[in-house]
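Re: that backbone. Tokens:
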């Protein structure tokens, strides 16, 4: 009986010491640990911050038309991009229709090459047009450019040019804004 009583006293003492340690230690330990990991954002020691970027919104997309021999021009828009900070124009010259033409009639496969000139056109406050940028792609190639968004609507003009005997190709573009 005395042995059980002593054992119970030892277990009780250890339990009380554990409770006191659990209650008192976190406050003291918290202060010590906090001084070790405290981060200060000062000009001498700046903390790097990466701004979150909004996802891009597709404003417009186009695919076509078949281009005949010679020169054709196609205009798209206007697209209002004034509420965005940047716009991106992605363009491509597709040659899928030309390949289809060659499969159907391999003896008369076109030998010409088509080139597409894409012009990004803005409109000023007096409704006058001005060219923001212009670049060319040929069949099977693509390009993408990013611009600061103008405060006025934009149009996209596609000029297709054929050198030789062309079977037709498609011009593709997508206009994104962020």
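Recovered sequence:
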């Amino acid at each position: 009986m005395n042995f059980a009583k002593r054992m119970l006293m030892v277990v009780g003492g250890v339990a009380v010491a554990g409770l006191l340690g659990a209650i008192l230690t976190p406050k003291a330990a918290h202060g010590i640990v906090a001084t070790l990991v405290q981060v200060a954002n000062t000009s001498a020691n700046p903390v790097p911050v990466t701004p979150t970027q909004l996802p891009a919104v597709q404003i417009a997309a186009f695919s076509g038309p078949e281009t005949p021999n010679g020169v054709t021009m196609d205009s798209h828009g206007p697209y209002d991009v004034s509420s965005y900070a940047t716009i991106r124009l992605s363009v491509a010259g597709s040659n899928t229709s030309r390949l289809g033409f060659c499969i159907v009639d391999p003896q008369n496969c076109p030998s010409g090459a088509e080139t597409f000139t894409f012009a990004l056109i803005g409109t000023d406050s007096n409704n006058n047009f001005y060219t923001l940028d212009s670049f060319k792609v040929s069949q099977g190639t693509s390009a993408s450019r990013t611009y600061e968004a103008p405060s006025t609507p934009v149009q996209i003009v596609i000029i297709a040019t054929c050198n030789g005997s062309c079977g037709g190709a498609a011009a593709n573009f997508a206009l994104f804004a962020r």
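Strands lie at 57-64, 71-79, 86-94, 113-123, 129-138, 142-148, 154-163, 170-177. The radius of gyration is 35 Å.
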